[in-house]
Amino acid sequence: MNKPARTAEAEAEAVLKANQAFYDAMETGDLAALEALWLSGPQAASVTTVHPGWPVLRGRDEVLRSYALIMANTEYIQFFLTDVEVGVAGDTALLSCTENILSSNPGEGDGTVGNLIGGLVVATNVFRRTPAGWRLWSHHGSPVMAGEDDEDDEDDE
Amino acid sequence: MNKPARTAEAEAEAVLKANQAFYDAMETGDLAALEALWLSGPQAASVTTVHPGWPVLRGRDEVLRSYALIMANTEYIQFFLTDVEVGVAGDTALLSCTENILSSNPGEGDGTVGNLIGGLVVATNVFRRTPAGWRLWSHHGSPVMAGEDDEDDEDDE
User: Fold this and answer.
1) What b/e string do you get for A34-66 counting C-beta neighbours within 10 Å, with b at 16 or more?
2) Alpha-carbon span A114 to A10, nearest angstrom
3) Reduced to 3 states, what is the DSSP secondary structure of residue A112?
């Protein structure tokens, strides 16, 4: 690292920005932007992704292929991120958030869009610091089942 | 780090051992062993866990409380880990695996165990190197939906 030491807040801010760029790329279907955000080089082989309900995908190529496939089958997708928290330790950042998703499948080919679907996904995103900025090393998203207990801290503490 | 540099294989081996100890502690219901495996100190607040279908839990205390709860409600659990892969970058390790789970809920209180349940979960486990060894920073487990495409590499490549 040949940059001056930055405050923890500035670090976290930079991770949040990379994370937002990741979801923005998904929303706009910008595969090139998405590719640029994923770790390349020596760690490319250890890149992993778990899409909700999917088995694990490993390696930069397989991960990016899955995103190309998802983008091709998604007419519209919007992420409202809530509950975003970042921890930074050395050159790694651990970010967790809730993805409030609104999406639709492709329509009937007549210019209409398919049915809108709402979804709730929790994600753990791991970033590595590189000379070019923070890059995604791992994404794991999973569905949140309805009926889970809400945070009970308010009730019993 | 005041230890001599170790080979990448020895590093990965140490991570695999910590990971196995994590699942062993779950199997034996050894909460003390489990607690010792989770990161403490400055990064304790950024510890996260997502159990299958659950929202994200944050902070060492909340995470450990969830394991105590799960252990109290689990009569029997066994993990057969498959497809285990580790990537190490600096002081962080990223491990993914498939948990083939056999478990049962508590029985009727007459000494019998409840029904055995099989489950398939994919996990992303993040470890940090500490002077005492590799410690868990994050665990994210999610159910694998049946009917997903199997790996298609054999068919089309």
Assistant:
1) beebbbeeebeebbbbbbbbbbbbbebeebbee
2) 41
3) coil
**pLDDT tens-digit series, residues B38-54:** 999 999 999 999 999 99
Nearest CA in chain A to B91: A90
Buried b (16+ CB within 10 A) or exposed e, A75-102: ebbebebeebbbbbbeebbbbbbbbebe
Asked whether A99 and A123 are in contact (CB, 8 A), the reply is yes
Domain ranges of chain B: 8-156
For residue B126, give the nearest of B155, B98, B97 by alpha carbon.
B97
Residue B139 is which amino acid?
A: H
Partners of B52 on chain A (C-beta within 8 Å) are 142
Helix (H, G, I), strand (E, B) or coil at A9: helix
Residues of A in contact with B43 (CB under 8 A): 87, 89
* Fold that domain B8-156 belongs to in CATH: Nuclear Transport Factor 2; Chain: A, (3.10.450)
Which residues 87-146 in chain B show a CB within 8 A of chain A?
Answer: 87, 89-92, 94, 96-98, 122, 124, 126, 128, 137-138, 140-145
- Cα–Cα distances (Å) from A17 to A4, A114, A141, B47, in that order, read 20, 31, 19, 21
For residues A123 and A97, is the Cβ–Cβ distance under 8 A? Answer: yes
Residue linked to tokens 């607040």? B45
Q: Which helix (H) or strand (E) holds A17?
A: helix A8-28
Q: A22-55: per-residue pLDDT in tens?
A: 999 999 999 999 999 999 999 999 999 999 999 9
The ipTM estimated for the assembled molecules is 0.86
Cβ distance B148 to A124 less than 8 Å, yes or no, reads no
